[in-house]
Amino acid sequence: MNVTDAAYDTVHQYPGGSVALAPRLGMSDATLRGKVNPNTDRNRLALEEADEMMGKTGDFRILHAMAAMHGHVAIRVDAPEAGCLISSLLAAGKAKGGVSGLVSDAISDGQMTPNEAAEIVRACMDAIQALSAVAQHARAKSARAPA
Prior knowledge:
Layout: H1 3-12, H2 17-24, H3 29-35, H4 47-57, H5 61-69, H6 85-107, H7 114-144
Helix pairs in contact: 1-5, 2-3, 6-7
């Protein structure tokens, strides 16, 4: 996923979409939609705004897209706020299965469209996030274990 798509998805997949998120960022709904519109090169989202948006939404796909574009992976290092190791592992397995299903569907006709590739990339980013939650829970569990 590229940064532009990540920003667009962050806004439009936020509960209530841009209408709900824009006031939290101190801007109008129309301005926010314009800043993440992939079909325009005017009035783009500033780094500070992307940072604030990630902090307020808890959605870090912009960060993950930036890291991936430069050959890196961003992994959260603090303790998870909720859930447990087993539920995180199951969620990661489900996410990996989703990637496998998308790849299987995409190659079944011997061709892969740009839309299919983009969907696979998004699913991979979701799987990476799910796997990082497993790592967070394991790290937190080991920190609480008696020495």
